[in-house]
Amino acid sequence: MSEQDYRDLRREYDAEALRRTMLAASPMEQFGQWLAAAQEKHPDDATSMSLATVDSQGWPSARIVLLKHFDEQGLVWYTDTHSRKGQALAANPRAELLFYWKGLERQVRIQGRVEAVSAAEADQYFNSRPLGSRLSAAASQQSSVVPDRAVLEAAVAAMQERYPDGQVPRPARWGGYRLLPQRFEFWQGRTSRLHDRFEYVRQDDGWLIQRLAP
Ligand SMILES: Cc1cc2nc3c(=O)[nH]c(=O)nc-3n(C[C@H](O)[C@H](O)[C@H](O)COP(=O)(O)O)c2cc1C
Prior knowledge:
The longest helix is centred in the N-terminal third of the chain and has 15 residues, at 27-41. This protein has helices at 27-41, 84-91, 119-128, 131-139, 149-162, and strands spanning 48-54, 60-66, 69-70, 75-80, 94-101, 106-116, 174-188, 196-203, 206-212. The relative contact order is 0.19. It is globular and about 60 Å long. By secondary structure, the chain is an alpha+beta fold. Strands 1, 2, 3, 4, 5, 6, 7, 8 and 9 form a nine-stranded antiparallel beta sheet that branches. Helix 4 crosses helix 5 (149-162). The structure holds flavin mononucleotide (FMN). Flavin mononucleotide binds next to strand 2, strand 4 and helix 2. FMN binds at residues 63-68, 78-79, 84-85, 107, 142-143, 187, 197. This is Pyridoxine/pyridoxamine 5'-phosphate oxidase.
C-alpha cells in the first residue's frame, strides 16, 4: 500500500513523572541512572543511539550507532572514520546523540563537540571485538559503493587468508569518537501530551538546569 494515514494513531504516556527534585546534579549521572533502567527494560537495545551529524554542505544525516563507553568526559562509539558520518565529523565536529527507550517512555538528547579517541583506546576496543567483526571492518570501506555482496565476501575471505592467525590489525581508518556534552535533554512522557522535559546546559561553573515546555 503506497498511502497510509496515521493521524488517528496515538498512545498515552503515563509511566511516571520527572521532577526537578529528582534530577542528579550531574547530567552524566542522570544519564547513567536512566541507561541502567533502560538496560533492565530493553537489554538488547538500550545502548543503541541515533547519531546526527551535519556535513560541509549543511545537510543533516542520522544513523544508529552503539554506545561503547561513557564517563564524565563524554560518550564513545566506534566506526569507520572515512564513512559518510566520518567525513561529516571531519568537516563539522559537532553532533547530537539521541536515545529512545520506548518501554520507559523516555528520550535523551545529548549535543556536543566530537573528538577522535586515542589510537590506544581504539586499538584496545578493536582487539576486543569478535574475529568476524574485525575481518569485516578490515574488508569493508564503510559507506563506499559496492557492486554486489560477493565483492564484500571475497574481501573478507582475502583478509582471512592474510591473517590466518586471526591477528587482524586495526585498519587506520577505523576508530572511535567521543562526544563532549554541552547540552542534555531528558524527556519523560506524561498524560495528555503534557510531558516533562529538563535541559542541562553547560556553564563555566557547572550545569544550568531548566524545565522546558513540552
Ligand atoms: C542497531 C544498530 C547498531 C549499529 N551500530 C553501529 C556502530 O556502532 N558503528 C557503526 O559504524 N555503524 C553502526 N550501525 C550502522 C549505521 O547505522 C550506519 O549504517 C553505518 O555506520 C554507515 O553510516 P554512514 O554512511 O552515515 O557513515 C548500526 C546500525 C544499527 C541498526
